[in-house]
Design a protein that fits this description.
Elements lengths: L2 E4 L8 H11 L3 E4 L1 H8 L4 H15 L3 E5 L10 H20 L4 E5 L22 H18 L5 E5 L8 H10 L6 E6 H6 L4 H8 L3 E5 L21 H10 L6 E3 L10 H19 L3
Parallel strand pairs: 1-2, 1-8, 2-3, 3-4, 4-5, 5-6, 6-7
């Protein structure tokens, strides 16, 4: 399993410097963060710039194997509000397809008051308000068709404020017809904040899991800590289950809570430490 860090960890440096630092630290793949994807999108020549970045990363042995679409994405908007966002998402996905990135992660909803989990006894479903669920399925159906034939799949991320659990995300994919272009991204930090069980999520999402956002916290807030530190996720249990389900993607850290440093050399040292943490995780049984 390739180990990865999202490029936002070093955001502010030139992309070439970021890629070289990630590779030197020991990572052998990277997650192109939302900030960097949008930087490409808004550049003067997006495809030319993207080609340069891809050639640089590939040449270093650091392929871009995951990315994140704009953080403010909301797939539950009604049709009269969604046209502009749908076009924006497609433009981002065009870049992901051009870069041949296997997994593009998207936020399902921004509306914490409307998509809190609903018990199966009360109303089986995604936890979404029925109208928002219908909107999300419409979005996903169109985006899956847009991706058809490309190397890129869309990964639905569980969100910490609403806890769209694995079964909820699976239901959305099933309602969209289970197209192969759709999958799931597990954000361990989000799930831990909501009291969710990591192993249960992995078991339920196993057939659809294509992306990971690995971070730890104490359960109080999404601190984006590195594993095996002050956080309280049971990583041995997590790694045992992850290895058992045959997860096909990269092991990607989303540890922005660790990227503050007064001097660049300290931040580089933190990056090397992060790679060592992942190497320890990989050896767990």
């Amino acid at each position: 399993m390739r180990i990865s860090m999202w490029t936002s960890f070093l955001y502010g440096r030139p992309f070439e410097s970021i890629a070289r630092s990630l590779r030197k630290a020991g990572f052998d793949s990277a997650d192109l963060s939302a900030e960097h994807l949008l930087e490409l999108l808004h550049s003067a020549r997006p495809l030319e710039q993207a080609k340069c970045w891809r050639e640089l990363a590939d040449g270093l042995g650091l392929p871009l194997l995951q990315t994140h679409l704009a953080l403010e994405s909301d797939l539950t908007l009604p049709p009269n509000e969604s046209a502009k966002q749908l076009d924006f998402l497609k433009r981002q996905l065009e870049l992901a397809m051009f870069l041949e990135i296997p997994a593009a992660v998207v936020h399902v909803s921004q509306c914490s008051g409307l998509d809190k989990p609903v018990s199966d006894v009360d109303r089986p479903g995604t936890g979404l308000d029925p109208e928002r669920e219908e909107n999300a399925v419409r979005y996903l159906t169109e985006l899956a068709a847009f991706l058809r034939g490309s190397p890129t799949r869309l990964a639905l991320e569980n969100l910490f404020f609403a806890e769209l659990r694995a079964k909820n995300l699976v239901r959305l994919i099933e309602l969209a017809g289970k197209p192969p272009e759709l999958g799931i991204c597990l954000d361990t930090g989000h799930l831990h904040c909501t009291g969710g069980d990591q192993v249960e999520f992995l078991e339920t999402a196993a057939d659809y899991l294509i992306a990971l956002h690995i971070a730890d916290n104490t359960g109080a807030a999404d601190y984006h800590m590195l594993p095996l530190g002050r956080g309280t996720i049971d990583w041995r249990r997590f790694m045992r289950k992850l290895k058992s389900i045959g997860y096909p993607g990269i092991f990607n850290l989303e540890a922005s809570g660790e990227n503050s440093a007064a001097y660049p050399e300290i931040l580089d040292a933190k990056l090397e430490y992060a790679a060592k943490v992942v190497q320890v995780l990989m050896k767990m049984e």
